[in-house]
Specification:
The structure is a single chain. The strands form three sheets. The protein has a four-stranded antiparallel beta sheet with strand order 1-2-3-9, with no helix packed on it. It has a three-stranded antiparallel beta sheet with strand order 5-6-7. By secondary structure, it is of the alpha+beta class. 32% of the residues are buried. It has helices at residues 5-23, 29-58, 61-87, 100-121, 144-147, 202-211, 228-232, and strands at residues 155-157, 162-165, 171-173, 188-189, 268-274, 281-286, 292-296, 300-301, 306-307. It is globular, with a radius of gyration of 23 Å. The longest helix is centred in the first third of the chain and has 30 residues, at 29-58. α1 (5-23) crosses α2, α2 (29-58) runs antiparallel to α3 and α2 runs parallel beside α4.
Length: 310
């Protein structure tokens, strides 16, 4: 597994983050906590890599296992200490709903990848960062709501009409109810429903064209229609009607703009992915119940723009 952006930020910012926050007399408890956790993350990565180095020269697997265990134990203690210190002053470290284990998983993947590459195996590509489904209700041992596997959802409203998914790195357009290009009621066609089935419908010629004109929407001119996997990442299976994270459906009322509300229709949203069995159809996600199905490219559906990703 390869280095991920979050890992790089944690490891490389360890010293800088700590120094910048602690050096200033006006540093807040939140800043000090964040600095401490940056430092802790860096120390954990260094501890793991040191254990890999000793394994490379000594080959003692049992000692390696003990060393890795100590790294994990020290990481957990230091992380909790930083959290407790902040909590005592009524502060948090901002990473919720991510937990220490989420950060540890990313660092583990990166350090293992480095060790594998140095042993002649090559750097492995990043693995998929699968998300939690959002379901928190348990329907018995082993059910999704019981285990809640995957990376926690973590969205940031950027205050400019966009929302960033801090796990996938995607930036999403917010929807409004003000009659603008972002209005939740606007629908568009996908494109040609005869050969060559090109994606050239009104979602491209009208919607994306408007977002990417001039200086662009929110200062960006690379907005696009999400693929089906990206679009489905917004589904939150603990909710329905709409089946979406609350970040995409809050304070929606007539006249609200993308900077004052966030709207989602409980209906069909186009993806950019064609249905290969019948290429005059494309895949959509229904945010009424999370259903994923194909629909004819000439029909009108809702859209939500995205940018970024790898």
């Amino acid at each position: 597994m390869a280095f991920r952006p979050l890992t790089i930020a944690l490891v490389l910012a360890a010293a800088l983050g700590a120094a910048a926050s602690i050096a200033g007399a006006a540093a807040t408890p939140e800043q000090k906590c964040r600095a401490a956790k940056n430092k802790t993350a860096g120390q954990y990565a260094a501890c793991r890599q040191n254990a890999e180095a000793k394994l490379a020269t000594g080959g003692d697997v049992s000692k390696y296992a003990v060393a890795i265990g100590k790294c994990a134990s020290n990481f957990a203690k230091a992380w909790q200490k930083a959290s407790a210190k902040a909590a005592a002053k009524g502060a948090t470290c901002f990473e919720a709903p991510l937990a220490a284990g989420d950060f540890q998983t990313v660092i583990d993947a990166a350090t293992t990848s480095v060790a594998t590459a140095l042993a002649g195996g090559g750097l492995a590509p990043p693995s998929a960062r699968l998300l939690k489904t959002g379901q928190t209700t348990s329907y018995g041992p082993g059910s999704d709501g019981d285990f809640r596997k995957g990376f926690g959802r973590y969205f940031t409203d950027n205050g400019d009409g966009t929302i960033t998914d801090n796990v996938t790195g995607l930036m999403w357009e917010k929807k409004s109810d003000d009659g603008s290009i972002h209005d939740k009621d606007n629908t568009y066609t996908w494109g040609m429903d005869t050969s060559p089935y090109t994606m050239d419908g009104t979602m491209v010629t009208e919607f994306l064209a408007a977002l990417n004109t001039g200086s662009g929407f929110a200062g960006h001119t690379d907005w696009r229609i999400p693929n089906i996997n990206e679009l489905q990442s917004l589904v939150d299976y603990e909710n329905w009607n709409p089946t979406v994270d609350p970040a995409f459906n809050t304070t929606c009322s007539e006249g609200c703009t993308v900077t004052t509300c966030s709207c989602t229709q409980s209906s069909l949203y186009w993806s950019s992915t064609t249905y290969q069995f019948s290429p005059d159809f494309a895949w959509f996600v229904s945010f009424f119940d999370g259903d994923v199905s194909p629909n004819g490219k000439g029909y009108d559906n809702y859209v939500r723009a995205v940018r970024g990703g790898s």
